[in-house]
Write a structure and sequence with these properties.
Largest sheet: 4 strands, antiparallel
Number of strands: 9
Number of helices: 12
Length: about 400
């Protein structure tokens, strides 16, 4: 649906990724659910196909910096189990190094990330700082020409498999979000401890875990870009992360519609196919409408980013609508499937669990609403709502 407006290479990429999900990932879904781990051979196959190179420039072995390509890829991958998409997809560490890192850091880290030889964890969220990125308490203090980092980070995707860590820390408590936050990029070293993989409602196999930093020593060479430049990188990354959350949600809507169409055509009740009942038709219509709308919002925001615009508003709108719509679609899919929809023997209930976190990750739905409203109020009715006025 709606692939006609995409470049042919992205249509081909979508077809390849759908086959990868159907033939490689989906058959391992039950194993991923039980073990809470993405199998090594699935990651190896992804590496063979070059699927770790999203958001990494070709000069460093990646697939390029196209946000539209990343969105299309994540949408296709998210038809399957959510956990593996946190490895086989664009990710914050690579984008942060690409944007904020020095050339030496790009040369050192990006090729291995693109090849899947290394995994990286972006350590931002804390017990007291989720949507409030400026409210982090992890500190990096200057001592004898070195930095000493102390703090703890929660819900860090890929952490359980990562050997590279990007940690956001306060280097100037007075400035904080105005030049007082610095990001450090470092290989695992003394003082960095990773807890066991989190057992979450959904997205099993994402490698999410707690990461603690106890008197971790760092040098100026470990600073990503510039001292105090971390908050600008965070704003860049969170905008993209919201776009990626929207793409994951679009994949859930697509899959919910696919399985609902198939089941309602095959399942018979009272002598006719389930899909012939008006109540089911209404759900199919709502899912289809949400899919088209969410996908259009996603592609528009991605294209604006690729054209060099600040599309933070469009990314927030896409994330808000798509993640809310994904939960509606998954809920309707469960309803259409009846008892099969709530049985763990089938995959419909996994869609329901996987998508729920998307309304929380990278800024909750309520945070998106607050940001969207504030931007429109600041811009004024005409500037904020006219065609092209949101970017």
């Amino acid at each position: 649906m709606m692939f006609g407006s995409l470049p042919e290479e992205l249509v081909q990429l979508t077809d390849m990724l759908r086959r990868f999900v159907d033939e490689v990932v989906a058959p391992r879904a039950a194993e991923i659910e039980r073990s809470n781990e993405t199998p090594a051979d699935v990651l190896a196959k992804a590496g063979e196909l070059g699927l770790f190179g999203f958001s990494i420039p070709e000069a460093y072995g990646g697939l390029g910096e196209s946000e539209l390509m990343s969105a299309v890829a994540l949408e296709a991958l998210s038809r399957g189990p959510a956990g593996p998409t946190f490895f086989i997809a664009p990710n914050a560490p690579a984008a942060a190094i690409r944007l904020g890192g020095t050339e030496a850091q790009r040369q050192q880290f990006l090729p291995d990330l693109a090849a899947g030889k290394s995994f990286a964890a972006f350590c931002l969220s804390e017990a007291g700082a989720g949507s409030d990125a400026a409210g982090i308490s992890t500190r990096a203090e200057r001592q004898d020409g070195r930095w000493i980092i102390n703090g703890s980070k929660l819900w860090i995707s890929r952490a359980a498999k990562s050997d590279l860590f990007l940690v956001s820390a306060v280097t100037d408590p007075q400035k904080r979000g105005k030049g007082g936050i610095t990001i450090f990029v470092m290989k695992k070293r003394a003082g960095i401890a990773v807890g066991p993989a989190d057992w979450q409602m959904g997205a099993h196999g994402s490698g999410s875990a707690e990461v603690s930093f106890t008197n971790v020593e760092a040098t100026d060479a470990d600073v990503l870009g510039e001292i105090g430049g971390g908050f600008e990188v965070l704003k860049f990354i969170l905008g993209r992360a919201r776009l990626w959350a929207a793409a994951r949600a679009v994949g859930v809507i697509m899959r919910s519609l696919e399985v609902s169409l198939a089941h309602s055509a095959e399942r018979k009740q009272f002598g006719k196919a389930l899909g012939e009942f008006q109540a089911v038709k209404l759900k199919i219509a709502d899912m289809t409408s949400d899919l088209y709308t969410a996908r259009l919002l996603l592609y528009q925001a991605a294209r604006l980013y690729d054209e060099g615009h600040d599309a933070a508003q469009e990314a927030s709108i896409a994330k808000l609508f798509a993640t809310e719509a994904a939960c509606r679609a998954a809920d309707m899919a469960v309803q259409i499937h009846g008892a099969m929809g709530v049985s763990q023997a089938y995959h419909v209930e996994r869609l329901y669990r996987d998508c729920r976190a998307y309304k929380i990750l990278d800024g909750t739905s309520d945070i998106q609403r607050l940001m969207i409203a504030s931007r429109v109020q600041k811009a004024g009715l005409g500037a904020g709502l006219a065609p092209g006025g949101l970017a």
